[in-house]
Design a protein that fits this description.
Structural class: alpha+beta
Number of helices: 7
Number of domains: 4
Shape: extended
Helix content: 10-25%
Number of strands: 30
Radius of gyration: 33 Å
Distance between the termini: 74 Å
Mean pLDDT: 93
Length: 476
């Protein structure tokens, strides 16, 4: 089994309708849909009117929550109608197959910060509560929002069917393996994985039902293992490069069905679920103090932020990148600055960034905390200045020019040259402005030879700009 996947993101045509979930299993015919119930009925319809499946008993001590709901079928006709209107046009036949869904029920207690929130599961339809939890649940039943949520976790299994193959220039790979002295299957497998990562050897795979990362890794490993054995067998009879065949055609394929586990989590605010029912029909009181459960100190889930460099650092002369958040700090490793993941259990909203350059100048800024940040050149203090001569390409045969950046802040003077002809009439200059904008001025000058029958030389004279892009102007 693989790790649990989110069915809303990974299963085809997945939808929720009232208490039902449904989706198309791609290993089945196009009109065949799988369905099941993902949540019980919180508010029941009875001859006497609507009643709550959730009840709360309060006391001077702890509390007791109970949840008792009949196991009712979902509306198959409504599911079929939804599928007909959205996915399967007439006259194609629709068939429904019921999925066995494991369901667990919880109360989720919201907290600030969000990382301190926690959930408690109903056991045999009952849940002992602390005095504080009992009070919060009573408040939610009476209409106070964002206090307590009714949480359902639904688990089920669906197969992913795969057809995959490994493609490569096998003569080139066997030659590489021979030169690298990779003769044993384990060494060949390492080399194959390197070539797959480099895009030289290609894994071609088709999946029915989207695969998890674990499923993809399993498929890749199976292909690599098969290829390694075949190539090791070929190399066993080769002692010199001349003995490598001119043609090699390995049929390396993998067909299998892999079971995958899915988890659907749905939570709804108790205040909104029960807002139309009288609270005195849900909450009762006993003068006898109920025992309070002991809650183990819940480890607060850390917030994580992965910071990466979204550009090639070569040519930007960056010597160090340092990140600071909460009371922690970490560098990104020179020279390639691979991604780093920041973690904290504290309430944090931003990250302090410090970039040090080869000339020992530096740039500092603050980044908003989020799940992932790909740093751009602008994030580390560079300004992208475009020199644009597109409008002059019909009038000039060649253009060349030079520019100097004069900073207003701590940056240093920088120089740039450009030349245009034929199909190239634009150039980008990355200026290390040590700022969020240009933070200075650019002095520039350009010369050109016109494309006339009798060409002339043109000189723009000294020019200045404090923002980009710079569009070259021809004053006749």
């Amino acid at each position: 089994m693989t790790d649990e996947l989110d069915p809303q993101r990974t299963l085809q045509n997945f939808f929720l309708l009232d208490r039902a979930l449904a989706f198309h299993d791609q290993t089945r015919p196009s009109g065949c849909y799988t369905y099941g119930s993902y949540t019980p009925q919180v508010v029941q319809e009875t001859p006497a009117g609507k009643i709550s499946s959730l009840h709360l008993l309060t006391s001077p001590g702890g509390g007791l929550a109970t949840f008792i709901a009949p196991k009712l079928p979902v509306d198959r006709a409504a599911i079929e109608d939804y599928i007909r209107r959205h996915f399967v046009p007439a006259p194609e036949t629709i068939t429904l197959e019921q999925e066995e869904i494991q369901q667990s029920l919880w109360l989720h207690f919201a907290q600030r910060p969000a990382a301190a929130a926690y959930s408690v599961e109903f056991e045999q339809s009952k849940m002992a509560l602390t005095h504080e939890e009992s009070g919060r649940l009573a408040g939610a039943i009476q209409g106070t929002k964002d206090q307590v949520y009714f949480l359902t976790r639904s688990r089920f299994s669906v197969d992913s069917r795969v057809n995959a193959r490994l493609q490569a220039d096998w003569v080139a790979f066997v030659t590489l393996a021979f030169n690298e002295q990779a003769r044993q299957p384990e060494a060949i497998a390492r080399l194959l994985n390197q070539q797959i990562d480099a895009g030289v050897v290609i894994v071609q795979a088709q999946f029915d039902n989207a695969p998890s990362e674990q499923t993809q890794a399993r498929v890749r490993q199976a292909l690599v293992n098969t290829a390694s054995l075949l190539i090791a067998n070929t190399l066993r009879n080769i002692s010199s490069p001349e003995q490598i065949p001119n043609k090699l055609n390995y049929q390396i394929e993998y067909d299998d069905t892999v079971p995958q586990r899915y988890l659907l989590e749905q939570q709804r605010d108790i205040a909104e679920l029960l807002n139309r029912l009288p609270a005195d029909g849900i909450i009762s009181f006993t003068a006898t103090p109920l025992p309070e459960p002991s809650r183990p100190d819940k480890p607060i889930e850390p917030q994580r932020c992965t910071v990466s460099l979204g550009f090639d650092p070569k040519g930007f002369n960056i010597m160090a990148i340092e990140l600071r958040w909460a009371d922690q700090q970490t560098p990104m490793a020179w020279p390639s600055f691979p991604p780093v993941t920041l973690e904290t259990t504290a309430a944090v909203s931003d990250i302090a960034l410090k970039v040090t350059f080869a000339d020992y100048t530096s740039f500092e800024s603050r980044l908003a905390w989020q799940n992932a940040i790909a740093l751009t050149p602008q994030d580390v203090g560079f300004y992208s200045l475009l020199f644009d001569a597109e409008s002059l390409k019909s009038e000039f045969k060649t253009i060349s020019g030079s520019a100097s950046y004069l900073p207003a802040g701590q940056g240093k003077k920088q120089n740039f040259t450009f030349a245009f002809s034929a199909a190239q009439w634009q150039a980008t200059w990355w200026i290390n402005a040590h700022a969020a904008g240009l933070n200075g001025r650019v002095d520039y000058r350009w010369q050109g030879k016109t494309a006339a029958l009798f060409p002339k030389n043109y000189d723009s004279g000294p020019l200045q700009a404090t923002t980009g892009p710079i569009k070259l102007q021809y004053h006749k």
